[in-house]
Amino acid sequence: MAMVVDGWPPEPEPGRGPEPEAEPERSVLILHPHWKVLVGPVIFGVLIIAAAAAVTAVIPAGAQAGTERLVVLAVAVLLLLTAVLRPVLRWKTTTYELTTGRLRVREGIITRRGRDIPLTRVSDVSFTRSLLDRLVGAGRLVVESPGEHGQIVLTDIPQVERVQAILFELVEEGQRGDER
Q1: Omega into 33 within 30° of 0, i.e. cis?
Q2: CB contact at 8 A, 157 and 178
Q3: pTM of the shown model
Q4: Closest C-alpha among 106, 105, 125 to residue 117
Q5: Cystine design at 119: which of 39, 83, 147, 174 (Cβ 3.0–4.6 Å)?
Q6: What is the CA radius of gyration of the chain?
Q7: How many CB atoms lie within 10 A of CB 96?
Q8: pLDDT (tens digit, 9 = 90+) per residue, 37-78?
Q9: Comparing C-alpha atoms, which of 124, 117, 162, 156 is closest to residue 140?
Q10: 127-166 b/e with 16+ CB inside 10 Å = b?
């Protein structure tokens, strides 16, 4: 037996059924930054390996050669970890998710940071593409919303024009849904 205290829960008005349940939020797109952000670290990694191999090859044989080669190897591994592995992990752990209700940004390797922007709060969506971005199919997406933070700039977005169109369409659908 349900108990009513001070008129709560309210009884539905006569002739009016219960409110329809809202459609659950669903994921539309999940993206990582464009692969172009990995080109520099990979090239730098190849150069580190080549330099380490060249230095190791010119170390003269002798009693100290083993120690010197280990030092070169240790320096090369340290440089590879900081110059290659860290950018790859940053790329892998950065995600942009577009759902039917919000734009979610998650980033960080050890310390995670996140930001959610409800699509109902988005006032403008724009993109820019440099010549290099146009060649590789990437760009910069700017999402503006009124409030304390104003805008969010997402760099190196793959297929930025498509993402902007989908985001704009979802914002429009959300605003039409609010008007009903």
Answers
A1: no
A2: no
A3: 0.73
A4: 105
A5: 174
A6: 26
A7: 20
A8: 999 999 999 999 999 999 999 988 888 888 999 999 999 999
A9: 156
A10: bebeeebeeebbbbbebbbeeeeeebebebbbebeebbee
